[in-house]
Structures are given as structure tokens and as C-alpha cells.
Amino acid sequence: MPSSIMYYEDNYVVLAPSMTEQFMTASELENCLRGLLADIQDNLPLDLQKIPAIDDQVQRLLKTACELDCGDAGTWQWYAVRLEK
Q: Which InterPro entries does the entry link to (predicted)?
């Protein structure tokens, strides 16, 4: 039976157009996404347009996606990673 640690999503690798890959904690990624979403509120993806609060939009992205198109700011991607064996 696999260890429950395999299902924790505490760390992410983030691929952004303006930087090389960067490792972030879950809270750092949430803050990053919060800032990105604040900048594109007028041009949100369809599934996020129905969600009024940015914090709820962030949680939706973390649970259902791994990519956010930010228009002129490019496309951001994130993937959960395990840093310990």
C-alpha cells in the first residue's frame, strides 16, 4: 500500500515565462496565483468567472488545473513535486 505522503501537495515546481523553473511551497504558489489572478480579473478563464472571490479562484486552480494563461504576461504552469523520498 502506498504511503500517504505520496498524496501531499506541499511543494510545486513553477514554470513562468519570465523566469526559470522555481520551487515553491503551497502557500508561496497561492500568493503567486493570487497576484496573477488580481491582474487578469477582466479576462478570467470561463470556469473562474463564476467564482467571485480571488481566494476561491486560487483554490479552484490548485484543485483542477496546472496552467493559467495570463494574456500578455504569458502562460504559467505548476506541478506538484515531492522533495523527499
A: CRR7, CRR7-like_sf
